[in-house]
Structure formats: C-alpha cells, structure tokens
Design a protein that fits this description.
Layout: E1 2-5, H1 20-28, E2 32-36, H2 47-52, E3 56-58, H3 61-67, E4 70-72, E5 90-93, H4 101-110, E6 113-116, H5 131-148, E7 170-174, H6 178-189, E8 193-198, H7 201-211, E9 215-219, H8 222-231, E10 234-237, E11 263-266, E12 287-290, E13 293-296, H9 306-327, H10 329-335, H11 337-342, E14 343-346, E15 349-350, H12 353-359
Parallel strand pairs: 1-2, 1-4, 2-3, 4-5, 5-6, 7-8, 7-10, 8-9, 10-11, 11-13
Antiparallel strand pairs: 6-14, 12-13, 14-15
The structure holds nicotinamide-adenine-dinucleotide (NAD).
Nicotinamide-adenine-dinucleotide (NAD) binds next to helix 5, helix 6 and strand 8.
C-alpha cells in the first residue's frame, strides 16, 4: 500500500500520525510511506529522520492525499481536507464523529472508509488507542494545574507539596478512570493531599489497596463532591459516561464556598465538560475565570506535549494500522474484531452505532 501521513492543521496541534520508527515498520512490511514535509517537526522529528526510516517526503498535503491508499493522522480532518476524500481511500485517525455532523456528512458523501481510533475496542472492552492520550492528559492535568496555582498565573499561590511547617495543597480528582488514575499518580508524587471520587466502587477499592492512607477515596455523590470542593486547591475532572455528554457534577453554586484562585482542570471538556460554565479553550489561552475560580479547559491537552503523545499514540495505533495495510481493510475486518469496531464509515454507509444514533442515520452492518 501507499501509506500517507500529513501535517496536522488543527490550531497548535503538534502531534503526528506516523513517527519515524512506525514508518520503518510499514516499510519493512513492504509498504511505501509518503510523509508531508515538516509533518513531524512539532513532535521533534525532522524530515531527515523520516528519510532514514525509508519514507518519501512530499512537498505538500495534496501530494500525500492523492497518492495514498491509506492516510494515517491524529486529529479528525478539518473542512479544507474534505476535498481529498474518495471512496478508495482508507482514513485511519481520531474522528469523534458523534460530535461532528458536518464531518460525518462529508465522509459519507465521499464514500471514504473511515476507521476511528476512538471506537477500536478490544475483547475486554478497553479502548487501546484512546488510553495513551488519557494517560498523558491525566498526568499533564496536575502539572498544568500546579502551574496555574502560582500567583503570576492568577492562582491562589499554593505550592501543592507544601514545605516543612506549611500544609500541603489539596487535590480533588473526579473520576477514577485512566485520566483520574494518572492524575492521582502525579499528585501523590508531588506529595499533595489527594481525594479521588468515583461511582465505581471497584475502582476505588483498587486504588485504596494500591495507595493505602496516602489518598482518600470517596463515593461520588453531590454531597461528597460539594464538601471536597470546599477544601480543594486543584480539581481535576476525568469523568466519562461512555457515548454521552459529561455530567455537570461541579455546580456554579459551589463556587461561593471554594477557595478564591483555586483551579479546575476540566479534562472531560471534550465531552462537554464537568462544570456548568466550561467551554473549550486552546493552548495559547487555556484558562478563563468565573467567580474567582480558574478554569483550564483545553480539549486537546496531549498536543502540548506533542513528542511524548505522538510516540505513545503510535505505540497504540501501529498494530492495527499494519493489520489494515498488510491485509486490506476488508480482510482486516474479518480477522480483527477491534478493527471492525473501528470502522465508522464505509462506502457511504454509517457503520458505527453511536454515530448513527447521534444523527438519526441508518446503521449498516459491515
Ligand atoms: N481534554 C483532553 O485533552 C482529553 C484527553 C484525553 C481524554 N479526555 C477525556 O477525559 C475523559 C475521561 O477519560 P478516561 O479515559 O479517563 O475515561 P474512563 O472511562 O477511563 O474513566 C471515566 C471514569 O469516570 C467515572 N464516572 C462516571 N460517572 C461518574 C460520576 N458521576 N462521578 C465520578 N466518576 C464518574 C467512571 O466510573 C470512570 O471510572 C473522557 O471524556 C476523555 O475523552 C480529554
């Protein structure tokens, strides 16, 4: 196959769909890999690294889209990229279609075969291509939040670790999934006081066994959330109801009893966010203030640490990408249930239940 990778055009997105080591794997498997010039620069991979790995460098995105049988990306295509869609092309990337009717229509109208990272599900129900980005976002949430607590950034001036003789900062984490667990790991590492809430008692049980009295686990209900927030310096939300909008667990009414200058990092913003005032922000202006509380609501947090994120993403996507390239999509669907679950659009038909339901489209069985 001709496997292509273009430079991401979303604002301040630094990740790249194929890193040089992944290119090498495709080349070793007999494929021809086309890379748009400078596609990997923001992730720290110059063109020379791709040439060394065996890729052909193309001068612009059009050359890649036109020659490729399969495009490997990171973010969903944006409107200027729709014109490159065609029915003999495989698109392998995050699509997030249930929140994007315009893109869904463009994919269906073109007949392109759209395989979405976020709907690839393994037999045990995990989402292997979503997990690494949640790991990054959870860890980064504490680092970003700690920074925003500093006075020059409009924070309350609390150092999460405290110092001998001064109390530690309080971190409250809503949701003990992948984001929550990774935020917890970093917050504990910083020696903050950490409280984590979830409705899944098994998750809380696991974390209690792992961390013992270094953390507090609480069942997530309105009372526990409100009381925890009153003491919080930094709040991280990684709550998810699969396939639905994030529940607005953090009410604006709670703000009057929260500490001025405290910080909420709303990682769940890509599903609408966990506060009543959340709206998506970008890396160049990530925080807004409501009632004295700082809200960090960047919807593509991993893009800020593009190198780590691009490598982590490639580690997860390579396996399924190679399977598709080596076998063709049709055979790959037959031999791999996760790949089958990843297909959202196929020759003009919607093949993903969640997307079909979101836009009232007929659901086609692959
Ligand atoms: N902003 C970003 O850049 C970014 C990056 C990665 C992931 N995310 C988002 O972060 C969110 C979390 O992702 P994840 O991989 O950790 O999901 P996950 O499924 O691993 O974890 C979600 C957790 O939320 C818990 N939960 C559900 N309802 C709850 C409630 N009422 N109170 C407390 N907990 C509740 C679930 O039990 C689960 O443990 C998702 O929306 C994901 O898309 C955002």
């Amino acid at each position: 196959m001709n496997v292509g990778c273009v430079k991401e055009i979303k604002k301040l997105e630094g990740r790249v769909g194929l890193i040089p080591s992944a290119v090498k794997e495709y080349v070793n498997a007999g494929h021809r890999v086309l890379i748009e010039t400078n596609a990997g620069v923001m992730s720290g991979f110059p063109d020379a690294d791709y040439v060394k790995a065996g890729a052909v460098i193309c001068e612009n995105a059009e050359q890649v889209w036109k020659q490729a049988n399969m495009i490997v990306k990171v973010k969903e295509p944006l409107a200027p990229e729709y014109k490159f869609f065609r029915n003999d092309l495989i698109l392998y990337t995050y699509l997030h279609l249930a929140a994007d009717e315009e893109q869904t229509k463009a994919l269906l109208a073109s007949g392109i075969k759209g395989v979405a990272y976020e709907t690839i599900v393994t037999e045990d129900g995990t989402l292997p291509c979503l997990k690494p980005m949640s790991e990054v976002a959870g860890r980064l949430a504490i680092i970003e939040g700690a920074k925003r607590l500093e006075k020059p950034f409009g924070g309350s001036g609390v150092l999460l670790s405290g110092v001998p003789g001064v109390e530690r900062g309080n971190v409250v984490i809503l949701g003990a999934g992948v984001v929550g667990e990774n935020a917890l790991k970093i917050a504990v590492g910083l020696e903050a006081n950490v409280t984590i809430l979830d409705i899944n008692l098994k998750r809380l049980d696991d974390l209690d066994k792992l961390y013992g009295n270094r953390i507090t686990t609480l069942y997530s209900n309105a009372d526990n959330i409100e009381k925890s927030l009153e003491k919080a310096d930094l709040v991280v939300s990684g709550v998810l109801l699969p396939g639905a909008k994030a529940p607005k667990l953090i009410k604006r009414a709670y703000y009057k009893n929260m500490k001025p200058g405290s910080v909420i990092v709303d990682v769940a913003i890509d599903q609408g966010g966990s506060t009543e005032v959340s709206h998506a922000t970008y890396h160049d202006d990530p925080v807004f203030v409501v009632d004295g509380i700082n809200h960090y609501c960047v919807a593509n947090m991993p893009g800020a640490v593009a190198r780590t994120s691009a490598i982590a993403l490639n580690n997860a996507t390579l396996k399924y990408g190679l399977l598709i390239a080596n076998n063709g999509l049709e055979k790959a669907i037959q031999i791999s249930k996760p790949v089958k679950a990843g297909v959202n659009t196929y020759l003009g038909k919607c093949t993903c239940k969640g997307v079909a339901e979101a836009f009232n489209l007929p659901l086609a069985e692959l």
